[in-house]
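Limitations
The structure tokens in this dataset are predictions for the assembled complex, not deposited experimental models. Users should treat interface geometry with appropriate caution, especially where small molecules or nucleic acid strands are included. An illustrative entry is reproduced here so readers can see what is and is not provided.
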Amino acid sequence: MTRQRQLILDIINSSYSHLTAEGVYTEARKTMPKISLGTVYRNLGLLAQNGEIRRIVLENQPDRFDRCFPGHDHIVCPDCGAVRDIPPELSMARTIERKLKMKPDSYELTVKIVCDECKDKK
Amino acid sequence: MTRQRQLILDIINSSYSHLTAEGVYTEARKTMPKISLGTVYRNLGLLAQNGEIRRIVLENQPDRFDRCFPGHDHIVCPDCGAVRDIPPELSMARTIERKLKMKPDSYELTVKIVCDECKDKK
DNA sequence: ACTATTTTCAGTAATCATTATCAATTTATG
DNA sequence: CATAAATTGATAATGATTACTGAAAATAGT
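Predicted assembly:
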């Protein structure tokens, strides 16, 4: 665990927005100005692989990274791309296990709902 | 509806694999050798926007395109990236509506399960 | 059917997110 | 502390996708 990796992990764990790699890079440079973008990408990838953070893959957007708290899903606005959490109480994890009759390694559920801001603009 | 767009739609609708844009391009050239890759991308995007086909966004892979039959979800192998359909009977659509107390514009559920071939290799 | 207007095309260049490379440095280990 | 293994910063390269272009085709109006 290097200083860089720890910093990146801290940034994700203390953020409530769903940061892109670029966003993490911007944050990281505030405390470690010489950190490189490659290092950010590499560590985000490693942390996601070890299940310490979560990668969210979206249409037409760079990947987002999120804290890894148990089974919460996401709502994304198809217009502006904003991402919101669905609270864990409403998690689909149990339903998926029950229907498939097995526990998946993991899953990603992205519900698309136009957000209020975008609704107003129309 | 141009000949090119119709061809692309036909290819998706008659395929049971989950083709990438490149895959559609390869298929399309068999009947229309001069079709360009840009045309394939443009039309896949348009068709997906109109809800005539479905775009599947996956980690570390080019997007896949699928026939648009009602509410079926996907299982993807995190090792080899193979995609399989979950039959519509097991669709999560109703559960999502019930839990969120609203009908989303759409949703994507990707369940990650290591496929048998990859399991054997270990 | 004929022409004008709009859309779409093929071909190619450009963009953007992400990975790979590599010598230098840091971290873990005996 | 010494040595091996892993990671870093900097930058080049890659791969998927989009943007641009003048030409061709589709559509609409008369």
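Some entries come with short summary sentences. For this one: Helices of chain A lie at 3-13, 21-31, 37-49, 93-100, 116-120.
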